[in-house]
Amino acid sequence: MASRLIRESDSGSNQSGLRDQNARLVMRYIRRHGALASAEIARRSGLSAQTVSNIIRSLESEGLLARHAAVKEERKVGKPLTPVSLNPAGVYSLGLNVGRRAAELVLVDFAGKRLDERLVTYRYPTPDGVSSFLEGAFREIVDSWPNVAGKLAGIGVAAPFELWNWLQQVDAPETIMEQWRSLDIAARASEITGLEAVFENDATSACVAEHLLGLGHELSDFAYFFLGAFIGGGLVLNGKVFTGRSGNAGAFGSLPVPDGSGGVCQLLDVASLYRLQRVLTDRGEGPDALRQNPDCWSSFRSEVDAWVATTAMNLALATAAVAAVVDVEAVLVDGAFPGWVRTRLVERTRESLDVVDLTGIVKPEVREATVGRAARSIGAAMLPIHAQYFMS
Description:
Layout: H1 19-33, E1 36-37, H2 38-45, H3 49-61, E2 65-67, E3 83-86, E4 92-98, E5 102-109, E6 114-121, H4 127-144, E7 152-159, H5 167-170, H6 174-177, H7 185-193, E8 197-201, H8 202-213, E9 222-227, E10 231-237, E11 240-241, E12 256-258, E13 264-266, H9 267-270, H10 273-282, H11 289-292, H12 301-325, E14 330-335, H13 339-353, E15 365-368, H14 375-389
């Protein structure tokens, strides 16, 4: 089941029969701006004060909104304003990320806060192995959070497109990887959990997380890079995640860049964590050295610094290529690495971009994304919530 991002108008309607659309609009403003009073929501949305008041009362009775203490505005007469916000305990969701080297299941609340997670690593992904992991991890999380089961919006599934084509990169048997071709992974997840499932590309899911929970609150147009085992990306235009005709917009890992030997390769070949892992493996580290210490890579400092230098130059070239086609405000960088690695990578990318010929291109700002290494699974978890309760 492919995901379908909601793309409705920013303005509401006061006509009867459109309650769901208007309720989504109200919750969108609350999600984006935090606690708001009904009068402010009416002003921003174009809905009447009475319509907004009725919607808020209804959503509050359903446990989706929480009312805060009244606030008296300074130097203004009239009644104190009573802001409302999303009730984090109103809805929950699960997100499964199927990676080339690991799978992760997370539980998030209505506000997108990660409450629990389960992780498994492997040499390469198999349908049976991932299914077994999901079954066990789902049961563990539900048992650990008994009040959540009845409030689950669904399960979002994130995975690379055409996973079966990554034979060489993950060193997997062709017969095993071909099993992915005929598998509807969202349907399998729904069968295991009993929940409605939504599927999205893994890098796009990470972009969704940043759009909904990170710098998307500040930026209307940005390109997004996520560096996992392989690099991927996403694109936000006019405040909406843009997936394109085939759902593959923002596939920045396929951008052509120099291979360092006079030829051309794809960005994913020279700007991905699998290259760093290869260096560490040659040094005698285990094949899971990076994933075993996801928040502490200080013992690999020299190797990480060398990887950052090479990767940053290629990210700068990719940034220039993206900016030449799409006039974005910023390029955001995140990945499955500690925060200090992201900071250093962004700093070096900015430095490298300064020596790239940008004639005819408006230079975008290169910034750190904020969600972090679990962005793909968190973004996947937000998909069912977003589809059911918000407008994009």
